[in-house]
Amino acid sequence: MSTVVLIGSQWGDEGKGKVTDFLAEKADVVVRYQGGTNAGHTLTVGDEVFKLHLIPSGILYPGKRCIIGNGVVLDAAALTKEMAGLQERNIDISQLRISDRAHVVMPYHKRFDELDEEQRGKGKIGTTLRGIGPAYMDKVHRTGMRVADLLDEQELRGKLTLLLEGKNLLLTKVYDAEPFDADLLFEEYRKYADILRPYVTDTSLLLDEEIRSGSKILFEGAQGTMLDLDHGTYPFVTSSSPTAGGACMGTGVGPTRINHVLGVAKAYTTRVGDGPFPSELHDETGDRIREIGREYGTTTGRPRRIGWLDAVVLRYASRINGLSYLALTLLDVLTGQETIKICTAYRYKGETIQHVPAMLGALEECEPVFEEFPGWQEDLAKIDRFEDFPAAAKNYVRRVAELTEVPVALVSVGPKRKQTKILHDIF
Ligand code: IMP
Q: Cβ(222) to ligand 1 under 6 A?
């Protein structure tokens, strides 16, 4: 048995798609376990660029089984579009499987996401407006629509009628917004159901069979540890569990069957949306990294906030996820910096602390304590072997491993598959 959970160790956008894609070549099965279209992966295969939001990146390899687990909130409109887009480019999607227990993001969830953000005003979370929070709210509130409901016309009609009574009351009386029409939604969603039906199954059962037969399974986390509903910078978080524990809940695979957890971390830090960010850069260095690293959101196009690598956050991610290894991405983006910094601790109320405080106000007050390193000028993207990297770059990677107490297994220095250097084999 060989099962690896891959998670984001920071605030998302760590380059997980690229690492997943790299590992997917060796895996037999790739599984998404939480989040929805708030995630976005950009993958470069040869000269072709693919942008995926819901379908696991393994789909680009023929014959890999790709699973959307029960923990994902599935936007049926977006998924069917993504499926059609791949088919138009001659990508075989016959190995896609969708959990019958996954919840569906409905158009009213997206509307509530917008309305809630408007209402929050200055205190807005900066969500991706993809209906994620409201869809998980309905799941927890036990008023969600599951994929299995979608496939059953009677259930779909009955649930839509019942649910919209309450939703429309809220929309019209509280938010002063337009109601939704149950008949129109029914017609739209039964069409999606017809497209999705051949792919829907009990994916926990399927994964059990795969594990028993010795398949290599990669669980692909979306977002990142600091956006985790429980462990992130609440309330500036997403509404799911992107951390390693979420992989069990979101797929129906028990914890004893997980072998390794790989944390993906950028060689610096980024964050989209609002909320505290202790190692943030508000100067030209930040702007430079944003431009070189093309740090604009895949899903929303928003410019990302930039900061130095935060080892406090990475140690926290190691603890929460039980990291076995780190994959360090975008190291090439730091090329050309005269000096590079890593935040090793925070100064809070005159004391040096090594952990992430629960209260946002406290984290906002935290001043970063930096360690400084000499940079390098050589273009890492063009160097074949990690051993041939400039000493300053190798030293930086070594120091990240030391500070986090997690071995670095992969270093990525460009979007192409061959630009990922292997320091330890994962599968
Ligand atoms: P939501 O997931 O759309 O509800 O957004 C909640 C927070 O998570 C916001 O700060 C978003 O910017 C952030 N977020 C959600 N998905 C991603 C992602 O894939 N990468 C980075 N940030 C994300």
A: yes
